[in-house]
Structure formats: structure tokens, C-alpha cells
Amino acid sequence: MTKAVAIFLVITCAAATYFISKYGVAIDSSMVRNTFNTDATEVGQLLSSQMIPYVLFLIVLPVLGVLAADIVYKPAARHLRDSLKVIALSLCIALASLYVEYNAIFRAGNVSNKYIVYTLIPINVISGSVNAASKSLRPYFRRQQEDIEFSASVAAPKDLVVVLAVGESSRRKNFSLYGYERRDTNPVLRGIENLHVLDAIATRASTLYALPMILEKSGIKLTTVTSRAGVPTSCIVNYTLYDNCAAVGEIKVGNCGHGGKCYDEDVVPLLAQNLDSYSSGQRFIVLHLGGGSHGPAYADRHPPEFQQFKPMCMDADVANRCSLEELYNSYDNTILYVDHVLGQVIHTLDTSQVPYVLIYVSDHGESLMENGMMFHGVPPGVALPAEQAEIPLIVKSSVAIHIDKRSEYQQPDIYDSVLDLLSIRVGRARALKC
Ligand SMILES: [Zn+2]
User: Fold this and answer.
1) Which end of the chain is more exposed for a tag (fewer CB within 10 A), N or C?
2) Last residue of a domain, one of 74, 109, 142
3) What are the residue ranges in the chain where pLDDT is below 50?
4) How far, in Å, is the centroid of ligand 1 from the Cα of 296?
5) How far is the CA of 294 from the centre of ligand 1 (A)?
6) How many domains does the chain have?
């Protein structure tokens, strides 16, 4: 048993070491979940001859060592004392190695104070596996929560299509609409009249946790409420909204132009198709613009024709290999593309002539080396830096709407606004008391 655990740890840690050193990835529960969802071709792409030394020195030799070791179980007290000695010695060696590499680790830690934790082997492998296991088991335990008794009905039926477009990693700071002056990143939206350009705040900086801030309240998904109220509901996604559309399912982009590579704009034909069948009544459509401004491969988020600001940062190791100028150019190209896609969504809605309200909000922002931070995600309990918290909230409608004036809007406000617009009343069943 001891040997089996040791061999398992040796193999998983060697794999983690390899991926961290080659791809600079952080190993957390989402990486472990990804590993289980990786198919054979992806594994083929990831395998390379560079792995041979890792396999030899980090797997084969240690495993042989483990197998050859003769484990003698001594009386408990002695066993504990001897084990503590070995653990203390290992810790000293580990701390000494850490000290030698202190500068490099300190710099990496500065860039992302979250990810450094996830590069500590084997803590990352163990905690990632435990988290992934608990996350995959959670649905079974959550069933009770999902079965929260509630009723939903439309109080005042009308003709209205509510479209909620959810963006990815796009921060307010780089939108010209919000005063970005370095260059014009919103040539399309700037030309559209009657846009409500509002300030919103994100409180979670990882997509997995940020999406429910918009699409879930008290354990109940927004799409579950709208569909239960009888409002035809659809989720059109590039990438995925995870389980936030479980009640209605996701319609994924497909048959994409650009040589089969899908981008956020590929949700637009599916939106048009949906609107084609509209004649009257209410509808709710969630558009997931999941490419958005997600790093590190910013250039992969848009078709090549949107590579307008150059030179761009083409290396995934943006912190060490790219200048700030290149980083901003790359990121601004993604905002330019968000501008284009939103313009297309609005154009599609306008030409369809359906009565509509469109709400666009990003899931969270992005740090671009401000205060030494990069990308998004901070440890739980730590407030998001402004760049990751301050997100755009843009509303456009073809009908008269009233927007409460506030200096800042929260993501959960969107949940309530959608229900308000569709005049959906939610009733909670109360537990009977004796
Ligand atoms: Zn995200």
C-alpha cells in the first residue's frame, strides 16, 4: 500500500513537473479535471521526445528505488519518530533548494500570487486531485440543492427578446467607450446610438466561479427559472458556460469559417437563426462570447484580420518574453474584436426587427502586469485588483426601458434585471412547520 501511494505520487508529480516546466501551467483542480477530459489526439500532441529525460529520471529511477526499498514496519512510536526525521530532512533539502531558486520563484510569485502555489509539487497534485474529485462528486450532493422547490411564472406577458451576452476577461479599462485613450478599440460601438455604457464590478476572477455570479442566485440557475416560467430559453456558446445552462442545454458554435476554427462571432448566425422563428411573446437567449480577451494566447481569440495593433506578443510566457507595448497591442486587438462581435449582435437584432434588450457583461477583467500581476485569478478571500474587478456592462434596447441609476452595478443585478424584464415572479415553497 505504502509503495503504491509512493509510486502514484512519483508518476503524477513527474507529469506535473514536466507540464509546469514546458508550458508554465499551474496545476489546480481545473487542470486535473482537464486531464481527465483530454482525448487521445491531444495526448499525442503533448507527448514529445523532450519527455524522455523526465520519464527516466523522475519516474523510472524513483519507481525502481521505491520497489527496491525494503519497508520494515516498526512499533508505532518508533515508526513515527523515524518518519518525522525523514520528513524533517526532506523539508530541509526542499527549503535549501527553494532558497537557491529564491529570486526566480519570487519573481514568478509576484506575477501571479495565486499560481505559484499551484506549482508547488506535490501539494498541487494532491490538492488538485482532491478538489477535482469533490467537484465531480458535488453534483450528486447538490441534487438536493438543485431540487429547491420554486415556482416561476410570467406576471405580464409581452413581446420581448432578452439577450444576455457574457464576455470573457475583457476589462473596462481598455474600452474606448470607457475612456481608454491609447487608441480606438471601439470603432463600431462608438457609432451606435443609445447605448447604455455602465460600470460593473466582478467579485470572482475565475470563469468557473464568475459565471454563477451572473447566472445563478440562491442555488437556482437563471435559465432554469426562465424556462420553468415558460419563456423559451437558449444558450448559444463558444466554449462553455459549464453547468449554468443545464436546464436547457448548450448550443455550441459549429461549421465555423476561418478553416473550421471557431471564434466568438460564430454565435451570431445561430442567434439570427433563433430570431428567424420569432413571431411574438418572450424569449431569453444567453450568448457566451467565451473567447473574449482570454490570455495568454490573445492572438488566438480573433481571426487574423483583427491583428491591427502591432507588434503583438506571440509567446505564452508573456511576463518574461513580451514587452508591455506588445502585451497591450495583443490585448487591445481582443477588445477590438469584442467591439466587432457586439456590433454584429446588435446589427442582427436590429435587422430582425424583434423587440429586444441586449445586455453585455464580462465575467471578470484581466491584469496586464499592473502591480506585477498578470491574467486573472487571486486566492480566495483576496480582493480583486481594479483591472480584474472593473468590467464593462453595456445595454442596448429597441424598446423603452428604465435603468436604475447607480455608480456601480454588481453582477447579480443582471439576474434580477432579466427576471424583471421578462416580468417573471419566483415563488419559493416554504418548509412546513409543525
Ligand atoms: Zn473568465
Assistant:
1) C
2) 142
3) 22-25, 34, 36-45, 106-107, 110, 112-115, 143-145, 431, 433-434
4) 12
5) 7
6) 2
CA 227 / ligand 1 centre spacing (Å): 25
N- to C-terminal Cα separation, the chain: 52
| Claim to verify: residue 157 and residue 118 sit in the same structural domain | no
433 in any annotated domain:
no
Residue pair 66/3 in contact (Cβ under 8 Å)? The answer is: yes
7 in any annotated domain: yes
Gap from CA of 383 to ligand 1 centroid (Å) = 16
Give domain status of residue 185, yes or no.
Answer: yes
The helices-and-strands tally (H runs, E runs) of the chain is 15, 14
Looking at the fold, whether 351 and 219 belong to one and the same domain comes out as yes
Same domain, yes or no, for 106 and 173? Answer: no
| Residue 298 Cα to ligand 1 middle (Å) | 13
CA 4 to ligand 1 center in whole angstroms: 38
> DSSP string spanning 150-193?
EEEEESS---EEEEEEEESS--GGG-GGGT--SS-S-TTGGGST
Residue 434 placed within a domain: no
Ligand 1 centroid–CA 188 distance in Å is: 24
pLDDT of residue 41: 38
Global pTM reads 0.73
d(CA 210, ligand 1 centre) in Å: 7
CA of 349 to the centre of ligand 1 (A): 25
CA 207 – ligand 1 centroid, Å: 3
pLDDT score, position 144: 45
pLDDT at 2: 75
Q: Are residues 123 and 192 in the same domain?
A: no
Ligand 1 center from residue 129 Cα (angstroms): 22
pLDDT of residue 34: 45
**Domain that residue 121 falls in:** 2-142
**φ, ψ dihedrals at 233, nearest 5°:** -125, 135
Question: What's the 377 CA to ligand 1 centre distance in angstroms?
Answer: 9
Per-residue pLDDT, 42: 42
Whether 304 and 399 share a structural domain: yes
CA of 277 to the centre of ligand 1 (A): 31
Q: What is the pLDDT of residue 13?
A: 66
**Do 207 and 100 lie in a common domain?**
no
For residue 22, what pLDDT is reported? 45
